[in-house]
Amino acid sequence: MGDSKIKALHYFIRESNVGELKFVLEDIGSILGNKDFLQDAEIVEALRGYYESHLSHHELPNGTQVVVTTHGRREPENHKAAEGEGEEEQSPSANPAEFVYVDAAKNVKFSLDVTTGECKVLDDACKEADSDSQAFKEKLVESLDKYISERFKPGTTFGTLSVTGENPWTVHIDISCHNLNHKNFWGGEWLSRWTVTHTAGSSDFELTGNIKISNHYFEQGNIQFKLDKAFDTPVKGTAADGDVAQSVFAQISKLEEAYQNSLEAM
Question: Which residues, other chains included, contact 121 with Cβ-Cβ below 8 Å and sequence gap of 6+?
Answer without folding.
Answer: 60, 61, 62, 64, 108, 109, 110
